[in-house]
Amino acid sequence: MRDDYFQMFVDNFGEPVNRREVPASSVEKYRFKLPDALLGYWQSEGWSAYADGLFWIVDPDQYSATLKQWLSGSEIEHVDNYHVIARDAFGSLYAWGERYQRSITISSLAGGIVALKSQLQQRQTNPDRALGIFFATATKADFDFEDRMGNPLFERALAKLGPVSESEMYAFEPALSLGGRADLDGLVKVDMDVHLTLLDQFRR
Q: What range(s) does the T6SS immunity protein Tdi1 C-terminal domain occupy (predicted)?
């Protein structure tokens, strides 16, 4: 049975699609590292996409190398041991720290890491509640990307390019950091791992 937090999330994002069962070994691997509530979502919901692929609950193992690359040399590289728990269609990664139970965001297209630095080393006293609030208060706008005129791109990208698969993301070519423009004409579907590696190199 879904808790109230996750039910609010589903009310906003719809039922899951592209569902993949989570092995019991993965649940045990992350026990005592990620919130029990998240492991419960894995067991009941699987690793799945929502809202036509706008938002995904993911296997942290698939993103560990990419996350390590993005954190390398940053101020928060050694603050905690972070694990990616979710991603969006534009390649942003949402990670959770196992020591302090705080979240960070890798905003890949914007080329930065978003974190509340003042709280990163303050241990979260109720990780399950914090995780639940992350889902319950999420809106589709939180995971969309705006064009240079301030208009959301996801629905238009979906209509033009079709949904992204588990290994894909929407990206701009050329990349924004190389002078690309944030508009629909420059948006393409790309392999996520490859493109996130390139974006990390471009920002250094």
A: 134-202
Distance CA 107, CA 115 (A): 10
Q: Specify if 193 maps to a domain.
A: yes
Does 179 fall in a domain?
yes
- Give how many domains the chain has, as a whole number: 1
Which of 178, 179, 185 is CA-nearest to residue 170?
A: 185
Residue 173 inside a domain? The answer is: yes
Enclosing domain of residue 183: 154-202
Pair 63, 93: CB distance under 8 Å: yes
Reported as a single tens digit per residue, the pLDDT across 141-181 is 999 999 999 999 999 999 999 999 999 999 999 999 899 99
Report the b/e string of 102-130 with b at 16+ CB within 10 A: bbbbbbbbbbebebeeeebeeebeebbeb
Pairing of strands 93-97, 103-107: antiparallel
Q: Which residue type sits at 177?
A: S
pTM of the model: 0.96
Establish if 189 belongs to a structural domain.
yes
